[in-house]
Amino acid sequence: MGSIKKLPKCVKYWNMLAIKGLYLDISDWFWLFGRSKYIELSRNREARIFKHILLNEIDLQFQHTLKAEIVLHEIQQGRIPLIIDGFDELLSKDISEPAANRNAESMLKTLVDLLDSKAKIIITSRRTALFNGEEFFEWMQQSSKKYQVARYSLATPQISDWLAPEQIKILEEANIPINNISNPVLLSYIRNTSETELENLLHSRNTIIDKYFKFILNRERERQDISFTNEEQLRILRKLVRIMTEFNIKSESKSFIKEIIKEYNINLLNEYIKKTNQLPKPTLDEITDTLSNHALLDRKQNDEIGFINEFILGLLIGQNLVFKKYQEHNPSTYQDIIHQDLAALAVASYMSESDERKLELWEILNDKKFKYTDDFNLYKNICLRNEVNESYSESIVFDLNIENTTFKSSCIFKNFIFSDCTFQQCKFSTPIQFLNSGFINCKFFNCSWEDETNDNPKIEYRPYFSGCYCPDNFLQKYEDAEDDITDESINDISLEQIILEHFIKDGKKYKDMVNLSKMRNNFSNKQKLFDKTINQMNNAKLIALNGGKCFLLKDAVPYYREHYYHN
Fold this sequence. Notes:
The protein is an alpha/beta fold and about 575 residues long. It is built from 25 helices and 24 strands. The strands form seven sheets. Strands 9, 12, 15, 16 and 19 form a five-stranded parallel β-sheet that branches. The protein has a four-stranded mixed β-sheet with strand order 2-1-3-4, covered by helices on one side. Strands 8-11-14-18 form a four-stranded parallel β-sheet. The longest helix has 17 residues, at about 230-245. It is globular.
């Protein structure tokens, strides 16, 4: 956050570092220090308020050279860019909690207070509702500081960014749905597999995931000089995942991890010690220590141990469900044990599995006793069945790549938004009911309306398309439809003016963002024309659409003054 014209040179070095945890990067590429300073804020336990943590760490880092006041002055003068990497990691685990929003506001106020003169502050964060909400933009408007905000969003890498054309050709010739393996873990494994090995791999009956596990577990036996079979290693890791998810944790201290491994595998470990040919024979503690250093485990924040990535964690959660391990140990409560975010990890990981295995997981998660939200149920159906049905309401789905999926005519969407999603070769079986629901900034490729039973659906059942892109005539069905209710007092030009005046007052911008659905509801008589005008304004770079929100772009104010404002 700050007045950013271009990213500072130090960022290229910062991006090259494999940093774990949350860091504050105080960098000067001119003359002051000659090198970057990396401070892990998350380890500071001496203060609970972000401002105090920040000042305390600056004092610790520069206690023998400069006072904190000088460092802060140089930050404000723009000589030291301040980079907060992983802003969201300092917040509550559930960023929807009110406490998390209050904490975020306090942290942002500390940073805004530094935005004097030529200060440059960069914040990195995973995409969250926190920075797209109306409260955040209202808070920004109320700030007495004058500063500019520039946003950069990283797009999802494509398969071609990972794999060579020759590798992609081998996968396609083997009829492997390569978009189902668009996971960085598997893609890294495939990228480092020779073409000959890849062809041999695909000729077997096992899935790529099976081959990946076989590779990792065989290598682990050699690396740690252990004789546990691959299946025994997986059994130990699955038990560890089951206990961790029952506690709803993703990492814990090494001692806690060792205790879980020991307590829940005691017979297997004792049998291993008895049969091993090693001399002297390892103790129980030595074996558990070795297993706690497994290649599929890794050190996390605060020296805790967790699984190396969410793909592996999700696979093992899914396997525990499919093998009915949760059901065996918690027959009446297992639906309450597995939190929705953990179930979503299992769904995402199982996208790379075979259709048979995906169906097994879907049948378990489709149990109505799981109290999951509608957007999760939709995600589950898309990923595991390529079929969408039932009713979905009061949700927003972001950034999904939806392929070869059928939307059944039994679908009912109520106050439901697809935002920034891509639909490829999808079939929409009419009449689907869209009640105040639609698509924002989505892309449609080779999609179609199938089994139409109503050539002209009722207005209240039509979806809206705002800022969407489609190279064929898929959207024409609704673009050509006329509203039954007309209002001659509203035309394209005046509607554009009305929309701009949601952001501009007396020729000056007074809002950065408004909720698109709320604004659209103000045009109940002309919603089709509203959608058309929004699309035109989006193409003209007057507004931008993101996550159900409509943002005013910098060219909109001078455009409004030229065409509509008369002082």
